[in-house]
Amino acid sequence: MTSFALLVFWLADPVALSFLDGVEPRGGVARVVSLAPNLTEIVFALGAGDRLVGVTRYDDFPEEVKNIPRVGGFIDPSIEAIAALRPDLVLCVRSPGGRERLSVLPRLGIPVAVLPDGGLDDLYQNIRTLGELLSRRASSIVLDAMLRLRVARVESRARGHAPLRTLLVYGHRPLVVAGGASFPGELLRFAGGENVLSAEGPAFPAVPLEAIISFAPEVIIDASGSGTGGEVSRQEALNFWKRYPVIPAVRRGNVHAVDSAGWFRLGPRIPEAIEMLREFLDRAENSDGENH
C-alpha cells in the first residue's frame, strides 16, 4: 500500500482524495499549483503558501497570493503554463470542470489531486488531506479544531432563537439563489436560519422575482457582488430590493448586501460567513427598518 493510500485510509474517507489516472507524488511536495482559490487559502492557512508556484486568475486572498504566477481559470487552465512551472503537485476540486484539459498532466508525470467541495465536512477533510500532502499535519489539526470551535460557538449562540426565513442571493442576471442543498444553505442552517428554498432541487437555481415575493423572506442576504467579477455593487443590490417593499425583509429593513469572496469559497474563512449570517439574523430580530 502506498503512502497516499495509507493517507486515505487514515482519513477514513476513501472518496475524499483521488489522483487523476492514479499518478501520485513521488517524494516531498515542494512546488504546488492550485486551481481553486479555496484550496489556495487552505494552503496558506497551513503555513505552506511559499510552496505555491501557480494559481488561478481568481485568486485574491491572502495578499501574498497576488505575486504568484497565474495559470488560467477553473475551467480553462493553461496546460502549457502549468507544465512550465514544474510542479510536484496540482490541486483542483471536483467542480466546476476543466478535467479534460487536466488529464494531460498525469501523462507528463505531473500528479493532479482532486478534492471534494460539497460542504463543510469537505472543508474539514481537505484541511487534513492537505496537511498530510504538504507535511503540515500539526498545523492541519490545529486549523481543523479552530474552525470547528468557531462554528460550534455560532450553533450554540443560535439555540433558543426562532429560525427566520432567509433568502441567499448569488446573482441578478438572472436572479440566482442558494438552495437548501447548497453549501451556503448548509452554512445558513449552522447559523440558525431557515432557507426559503427546500433541500430538494438544484443547489443554485434561477428563480423568478414573482416566486421570491411569494416566498416572503424575512431576511435577504445578497452576495451577488462577491468576489472577482461581481455582477452588481452593494448599493446597486440594495437599490434593487428597495423597489419591492411587499417583501417582508425589505419592508422591515432586513436586506444585507455583502461583498466578501469568502461567501463563495469553501475555505478557512467560512466560519466568518457563518458568524456574519448569525449577526444578520440577530439584527433582524430587532430591525430598525434600514437596509444595509
Which key phrases capture this entry?
single chain, 292 residues, alpha/beta, Rossmann fold, five-stranded mixed sheet, 13% strand, disordered N terminus
Assign the CATH superfamily of the largest domain: Nitrogenase molybdenum iron protein domain
The number of helical segments is: 12
Instruction: Return Rg in Å.
Output: 20 Å
Shape: elongated
CATH class label of the largest domain: Alpha Beta
Going across the biggest sheet, name each strand in turn: 1-5-4-2-3
Sheet with most strands: 5 strands, mixed
**What fold name goes in the CATH topology slot of the largest domain?**
Rossmann fold
Estimate what percentage of residues fall within beta strands: 5-15%
Q: Per CATH, which architecture of the largest domain?
A: 3-Layer(aba) Sandwich
> What is the mean predicted local confidence, pLDDT?
89
Along the chain, the helix and strand elements come as: HEEHEHEHHEHHEEHEHEHHEH
- Measured between the Cα atoms of the first and last residue, the distance is 55 Å
Task: Give your account of this protein's structure.
There is one protein chain. With 292 residues, the protein is of the alpha/beta class. The chain folds into 2 domains: 3-148, 3-Layer(aba) Sandwich (Rossmann fold), CATH 3.40.50; 161-285, Rossmann fold (3-Layer(aba) Sandwich), CATH 3.40.50. The protein has 12 helices and 10 strands. A 5-stranded mixed beta sheet has the order 1-5-4-2-3, covered by helices on one side. Mean pLDDT is 89; it is low at 1-12.
